[in-house]
Amino acid sequence: MANSIKQSAGGLALQITTEARNAGMVVEDNDGAATRRAEVYVYGFDDLLLLIDSETIGVSHRAELVTAATQDTNSIHRGGLATIEIAGNGYQIQLPGCQDAGFRLGDTAPVSVGDGVLVIHDGEGSRLAGDLLTLRGEQVSS
After folding, report:
1. Which one of 11, 47, 62, 82 is at 20 to 30 Å from 117 when CA atoms are compared?
2. Are 79 and 37 within 8 A, CB to CB?
């Protein structure tokens, strides 16, 4: 089940524990302690947020993903850099620019997962999320 956007000390955030692990944005040791928490670029588009691992995805691949999302949505909004944070027994990410992209406190936010990429959408953006993950898969395999 998708988590809801919540208020945190730094602004609006989303719990992404499982998703961050699956995307390789969090690495843990055998004791479950985080040995890596990614710094992430957060890009906003109408009803969609694209989170890209700044350390594992090169500039050209990042540009290709952002361009694809911009062309599909005919939009781009202010975003920013965020670091995956420890929150309770898991991980969360601040969502700079999420309100400009149409997300509000309490909104349910499905997350699609790719290698070094998370796509947060409003449910209606699931097709574009899938397209972006397909593009990311092609980048990884090339």
Report:
1. 11
2. no
